[in-house]
Amino acid sequence: MNLGIKLLVAEDDPNLGTILKAYLTQKGYTVAWAKDGEEALSLFDDEDVDACILDIMMPQKDGFAVAKEIRKVDKKIPIIFLTAKNLEEDKLKGFEVGADDYITKPFSMEELLARLNATMRRSFNEDRPDKNIFKIGSFTFDYAHQTLTIGNDVQRLTAKECDLLRIFAVNYNQLVDRNTTLQKIWKDDSYFAARSMDVYITKLRKYLKLDPNVEIVNVHGVGFKLTHKE
What we know:
The protein is an alpha/beta fold. Helix content is 43%, strand content 23%. The protein contains eight helices and twelve strands. The longest helix has 19 residues, at 109-127.
């Protein structure tokens, strides 16, 4: 569920912020970490984030204020609040400003991950279908339904083919690091996993040949890039 997803994490506690960023990165998410509310809004403006994890008690602007500003721009982006408080009125206020979930400190990383994955699953499958559908040249790639369509030709994709193509589509015309991709999909960067990925990339290249302008380029020793010739 986490492939290619970028999170905005706003947490002013440097210890917890460091732990959150390291843990969520290890789980395959890309993390932009803000240490106060103003920085959170700045990162939200600058980065193409897919979900927000906001501490409520922060300097400059609190999590509620940040969420209100974000909701003016994006009504549907998932927002999860973190707070040391367990007051019912705080929870109600959080949901009033558009929270999707609310986690009280202290919490386990496993609980946070489970709640985040559940929130993202609901969001991607229901509220934000645009995040599942990509235009790749003349193709339409539907991640949720595992199809790659061009004209009347519909290619059914396997789960791994979908995960791999989604990483390329999210990073269209950008370099995708080989080892990072292996860890995200195969949870392993061994020789055998790398050979397996090469087989899947060969399959994707075969499907994409129906549009001669679309290509998965091998950047030697670094990774790959999904490109479209003008």
